[in-house]
Amino acid sequence: MIQLPHIPFIITIILYFTSSLWSIGYIIKPSVFDKKVAKWTMMMGFFVHSGFIVFLGLESGNIPITNVYESFVSLLWCILFVYINLDYLYKLLSLDTFLLPVVTALSIWALTFDGGNLLITVSLQNFWLIAHIIPIFVGYAAFTISFSLSIMYLTQQRQLKHKLFGSLFNKLPSLEGIDKLMWKTISFGFPLLTIGLVFGAFWVKTQNVLGEMWYLDYKVILGLATWLIYAALLHMRLIASFHGTKIACLTIVGFCLVLFTFIGTFFMGSKHAFQRVSEQTHTEVLNVQ
Amino acid sequence: MSILVVGLNHKSAPVEVREKLAFNPNSINTALSLFSQKYQDQNAEIVILSTCNRVELYISSQDGAIKVEDVFSFLADFHKVELTAFSSYMYHYKDDHAVNHLFFVTSSLDSMVLGESQILSQVKEAYTMAAMEEATGKILNQLFQQALNAAKIVHTRTSIGKRKVSISSVAVEFAEKIFQDFAGKIVLVVGAGEMCELLLKHLYEEGARTFIVANRTYERAEALANEYHGQAIKYELLGEYLEKADIVITSTSAPHYVIHADQVKEAIKHRRGNPMFLIDIAVPRDVEPEVANIDNVYLYNIDDLQSVVSQNIDERNREVEKCRVLIEEEVERFMARLEEMKIEPAITHLRNHFHTIGKEELDRLKPKLKNLDNGDWEQVIYTMERTINKLLHHPAKVAKQEAKNGGGYRYVETIKKLFGIFHHTDHSQHKEKTE
Questions:
Q1: Contact A243 B273 (CB under 8 A)
Q2: pLDDT > 80? residue A235
Q3: Which of B178, B180, B292 is opposite residue A180, by nearest beta carbon?
Q4: CA end-to-end distance (rounded Å), chain B
Q5: B182 touches chain A (CB under 8 A)
Q6: pLDDT band for position B420 (50/70/90)?
Q7: 3-state class of A271 per DSSP?
Q8: Is B188 helix (H, G, I), strand (E, B) or coil?
């Protein structure tokens, strides 16, 4: 059952879905699907999304990460926020066609985490936690965009190789252009991820939230793996000045790891300061905080 | 007022005929002023469009006073050519057909390469020249401005001029899908044929500046390299330079492959994933086809490029019908405007006529109203003018609107008859008077 408070998020999803539809439609039949519709539905979606985040924050009196669902909603907001800013700075041709469907799919997935199933067990009024979460979320957002860019790169690369010159081919930017942006988003996300992980380590040590064996937490291990993969990517690019298909493929692997670290680890039993609690205790726990 | 076009083009006449009637910029000016002088009494307006594919004279005259034969004999006299040498190759259109033809030409639907943009600037230039010579008037000014406007509409609303239709422009377009820009990119040219040069020129125009040329005859490589401030290398060193090249153009006449897969594989290793674009325009091919399978390497041969060119030409042909509809709309709009223009002098006259009557009446009234001071008298004048303007506003508006539907001439006649107005430039009234 969808609860009433989630209606704004459902409206957001509908708007993102419409935006995806129009941005894909624009590639196939630009005479029918106006690019402006794609842009404005996305902006409206982002507006409602922002409102929803504020609502969640005000409701709990904390930054909206009190459960996995809220975290997911916040992460998606970060992705859109970073994308809108990057789009303003770099005029990313047709990236919305690749990013918005990803965002829509993730939003629908987020909805399945609805409710206070996995609830955070630690105080959110903690500097280290905020310093851990925010950079990581913005970093993840950058990685999501670089993932979309790498899909875009591989699509364009495939079209060039197989000589498929449809309307998608005409609307996508040059390989070099995509490659540069991919590099920019990764190099923007990586330091943030690093800062987030370092602060996370401080938080864990100072608050002892994950227990003595904190380094065995799946989320910690996979977080480190994610960091390593992006570090490898940066190394390849910076030291060995690697470009092209391999970088694009590695970026995709990196993003899969990001997603798995973010959500997948909960399925593996990692708690990472979250606890499986019933609906009733949700508010109680929050009150205790 | 009538519009006439007389001309020939690449479809109607061979180059031997076209060149006889072609004008150069100087002779255009002479012809324009000669023609204008000769047909001054017919209110003649003229624009001469002379390109390598066409010579056309656009003429407007009072009630079609200038006939096709007049234009023929003018051309024969001017170019000192026998009339029979060209008359059978000429076409001519009148009024809306002439307007339609001009819009077609300007929109590049009558060009040898459908949708090319050069004709637009040629028409603009022809018109500017005529306007500078004061050979155009109200009609042709309006016509040519509308023609340029129609062409813009056609080009923005359809994709008639969007797709590239030459091998070299298509190749450059692909290169643009691989590289963000060409500044700092190294272009390796193997062979120094005409096609290579064309591609080089195109890339240079798009910003490429570093060229390396290799050719069996070193001197030819040097000549081509010098032309583009590039570097000529010995043909044997080709393999060594391959890894540096972002774009490779090959067009040698060698009967065997010049660039092998092994060489490219080795080169790409050193390029660390940086893409390499090979354009093989030679027949037989210069680049081993297996090269296409190497990661980050994009190989296009002449057939790949040619098939895109053909597709793009087809695409342009498919757009013609859309353009035709747009042009028809524009022609209709212009013809309506023309009808409206026909009625304008009559309305001006009607207005003048009323104001003259008003002034006469006021002159008669003034001595009778000696007690009025200047301020009050101005009020009387103002009221009179206002009344006249108000009385005429509606009929003038309706007449203009109705004229747009093609009945302009009828309305002019009616206005004249009803109010007994004569216009010294109006041909039919002249006739009536003399009769």
A1: yes
A2: yes
A3: B180
A4: 22
A5: no
A6: confident
A7: coil
A8: strand
- Nearest by CB to residue A174, choosing from B177, B274, B300, is B177
The whole-angstrom distance between B274's CA and the closest CA on chain A is: 5
Helix/strand/coil (H/E/C) assignment for every residue in B258-309: CECHHHHHHHHHHCCCCCEEEEECCCCCCECHHHHHCCCEEEEEHHHHHHHH
In 3D space, the residue among B84, B18, B12 whose CA is nearest the CA of residue B51 turns out to be B18
Question: Interhelix angle for A127-162 vs A175-207, to 10°?
Answer: 160
Strands, E assignment, B51-161: 54-61, 91-94
Question: What is the per-residue pLDDT across B104-145, written as a single tens digit (0 to 9) for each?
Answer: 999 999 998 888 888 999 999 999 999 999 999 989 999 999
Structure tokens at A228: 């390593």
Map out the domains of chain B as residue ranges.
Answer: 2-161, 167-309, 336-434
Whether residue B273 and residue A245 make contact (CB cut-off 8 A), yes or no, is: yes
ipTM over 0.85: no
Q: Output the pLDDT for position B413.
A: 77
Do B250 and B215 meet the contact criterion of CB atoms below 8 Å apart? no
Residues A138 and A128: their CA atoms lie apart, in Å, by: 16
- Give me B317's structure tokens: 């042909």
B52 classed as catalytic: yes
The label of the residue with tokens 């001519």 reads: B92
The alpha-carbon gap from A167 to the nearest alpha carbon of chain B, in Å, equals 12
Q: How much is the pLDDT for A118? A: 58
Homologous superfamily (CATH) for B167-309: NAD(P)-binding Rossmann-like Domain (3.40.50.720)
Q: Which of B295, B183, B300, B291 is nearest to B249 (CA)?
A: B300
For chain B, give the mean pLDDT: 89
| B144-168 residue pLDDT tens | 999 999 999 999 999 888 888 888 8
Name which of A156, A163, A244 is nearest B274 (Cβ-Cβ). A244
Residue pLDDT, tens place only, B12-49:
999 989 999 999 888 999 999 999 999 988 889 999 99
CA A104 to chain centre: 11
Which CATH number describes the domain made up of B2-161? 3.30.460.30
